[in-house]
Amino acid sequence: MPTTNYDENSIVILEGLDAVRKRPGMYIGSTDRRGLHHLVWEIMDNAIDEALNGYGNQIDITLNADGSCTIRDYGRGMPTGMHKSGKSALEVIFTVLHAGGKFTDSTYKASGGLHGVGASVVNALSKRLVVKVWDGKVIHELEFSQGGRHTGKMKTLGKTNQTGSSVTFWPDPEIFKDTTFSYSTIKERVQEDAFLLKGLKICVEDKRQNPKRDEFMYEDGLKAFVEELNTDHDALTPVVSFEGENQGMKIQVAFQYCDTYQENILSFANMVRTRDGGSHETGAKQAITKMMNEYARKNNFLKEKDKSMDGADIREGLTMVLHVTVPENLLQFEGQTKEKLGTPQAKNAVDAIVCEHVRYFLEENKDLSENLIRKMIKAGQARQAAREAREKARKGKGKNKSERIISGKLVHAQSKDATKKELYLVEGDSAGGSAKQGRDSKYQAILPLRGKVLNTEHCTLEQVEKNEELNTIIHTLDCGIGQSMDPKDSNYHKVIIMTDADDDGAHIQNLLLTFFYRFMRPLIDAGMLYIAMPPLFRIEKGNQEYYVYSNDELTQLKAQLKSGYTISRYKGLGEMNANQLWETTMNPETRTLLRVTLDDGRLAEKRITELMGEKAELRRNWIEENVVFTLEDDFIKEESHG
Known about the structure:
- By secondary structure, this protein is an alpha+beta fold.
- The protein has 4 domains: 18-216, Heat Shock Protein 90 (2-Layer Sandwich); 221-382, 2-Layer Sandwich (Ribosomal Protein S5, domain 2), CATH 3.30.230.10; 399-534, 3-Layer(aba) Sandwich (Rossmann fold); 536-569 and 599-642, no CATH class.
- The protein has 21 helices and 25 strands.
- The strands form 5 sheets. Strands 1, 2, 3, 4, 5, 6, 7, 8 and 9 form a 9-stranded mixed beta sheet that branches. A 5-stranded mixed beta sheet has the order 10-11-14-12-13, with helices on both faces. A 5-stranded mixed beta sheet has the order 18-17-19-20-24, sandwiched between helices.
- Helix 13 links the parallel strand 17 (422-427) and strand 18.
- The longest helix is centred in the middle third of the chain and has 30 residues, at 366-395.
């Protein structure tokens, strides 16, 4: 086998910002729409850090008609003087990685952007970038092009008594396939930041084809945040909001109990969403568990010999937003993505503040408090009864009605090892038949679903359990429902939704996702829910056949094959024979599964309310903003190219 030399000459140093352009995913996660909007967040976070430290109370974000985005703050203005490197400080900020004012607590007492790469990364991934600085005396301007490779000379545009900075950038189409910013995506993120930073006004404006403008400012932001999260739920308590300081940290909390079966806790540190929680979230949960048990014992809901209430039962129906502002010298995030707070002092600091205010709330609201405690005790009893019933059913005799329904529908897997077994929820009997014939019978079970399942967005638990299709899913998994469920008890550790690649299939998929989110969310949190990806097309050329899963992939393959091929468009799983279904969609060696994850609790809540709720106007507005309509027929059954 021929070898290539690997020596000192093989080592390449990427100068300046070339490393970012070579591997953009390392810096912004991806080059899709999420990565594109990450550029906005990087510049916006710098503006917010100014406001977080008390400099400026307004930020303007503008989507310009030429495709660029401008972010303007009214803080101190970036430094423009000569840096010791021989370049202006402004040029250093935008061309040198890990250069900025956040590596010392003398400039920023608190900051979310720790790594000093934001401005330079945005420059590297833009075809053009213009930065302006108002320093209270003059307006400075510096322009970059070709991903920061070319730097113009800093200009003085005139005199001013204003302060602040603005950054306008044009994303590079060589990096991003789609450079069109989404107004709704930016608006949602902007509102979240306004919730978190009391008194900060954030304006977002779209100057493109359909001009629009929104302004967000909240004097009691976390209270408004919780109210928005619970718009569609029946409240059991008012929103309780408070703040305090402990160990040099500012702690803000708002919470409310609703008549739901899940907890919804959103935590932040220095404006950064901590999706994986951390020490501050642990402190808040610990404090609420402690105070609720203390109140229950003090008022004889729990006797001396009774076990304390479990934290999961106490948090059933709880919505909480927690924001801590941690001094720069104490701030620690775990992992590169900064999604878990590691600051150990935050746990005790949050615990102390939350204990003080929750104790006061319970003592001052006797009737509400007693109703909450009864609800928590009842939740614990229901969870224990459900677990005992499952254990009894697994050891017991005879079949109840639900088990008889399951036995008539479910095609079982032979294995007894739940961690290796997969349950396919399949649309229709014909697809179920193909799946039954094509599956791996040792590990894969098939549950065919007839028609569209119930929209559970506004259903009670009782209504869900009365629905035959959903009741069959619940008893097939046999791990409980609502707060009483435990994913570890599931008969299948992979639950796979497999529907047709058409409108009806997409609707059924959304109905099932709504059900799992509302009533079996721990299954999602445990990473056990998946969506199967059947192919959209089959291409034949001679003796060769190709399965294609997207329109982009189809375009590439057509260009590669050139001519002499036939394209078939799959609309339903039933159009594939058992072998084709196995090879494309069910074979672990060749299939593609999408794992369902809860990346953003607030956004998930909002999307389900918008798209699955009763208000058609919300649904229509979202569709008009996010769906591109075309007259092109994308559903041609068969097409030949000779």
